Amino acid sequence: MRTLLIGIGNTLREDDAAGPETVRRFAELYPGLPDLGIVIEQQVMPEHAAMMAEVARVILVDCRVGTDAPGSLRVEKLDENEKESTGTTMDHTMTVNGVLQLCKTLYGHVPETWQVTITGSQFGLSEQVSEEVEKAIPAVVETILEIVKK
Predict the structure, then answer these.
(1) Where is 75: in which H helix or E strand?
(2) CA distances to 43, 49, 70 from 104, in Å
(3) DSSP result, 12-53
(4) What are the pLDDT digits (tens) for 8-23?
(5) In the beta sheet, which residues pair with residue 73?
């Protein structure tokens, strides 16, 4: 497997489902792409370091809260050397850069890593994403395809 595609988010919290929903649609539109693994999770976890160590590229798709307009797309190539907190043993959180640091420390390898995020605005209890996020998903799917084809 060359690329690992990870959809992050809670499918029961409206726009937070943007990552899993986008990855699900990508898999439906482009089944059987060679060298592509797909994972859907509620959050980034230390266990992802082992999966990341086995691939050349990782694409994480997630929703974000921000000042950008709802449905806005952001694509960032992450820097493996950027220092960021990995979370603590007491707060049960892990950041993407924390997992990359873990990957480097434990396995001596950090894949090229892309973070693709959609700005969300609704996070109540529902399995339906907002209209703005729904409209953004096709563009995110195409962005993922562009990265996968690199």
Answers:
(1) strand 73-78
(2) 20, 8, 34
(3) TBGGGGHHHHHHHHHHHHSTT-TTEEEEEESS--TTHHHHHT
(4) 999 999 999 999 999 9
(5) 118
Structure tokens at 148: 């996968």
In whole angstroms, what is the distance from residue 132 CA to residue 24 CA?
Answer: 18
134: Cβ contacts below 8 Å, ≥ 6 apart: none
* pLDDT 10s digits, 117-132: 999 999 999 999 999 9
Two structure tokens written together for 28: 């439906």
The model's pTM: 0.90
Three-state DSSP at 91 gives coil
At 52, list the tokens.
């990341």
CA distance 2 to 44: 20
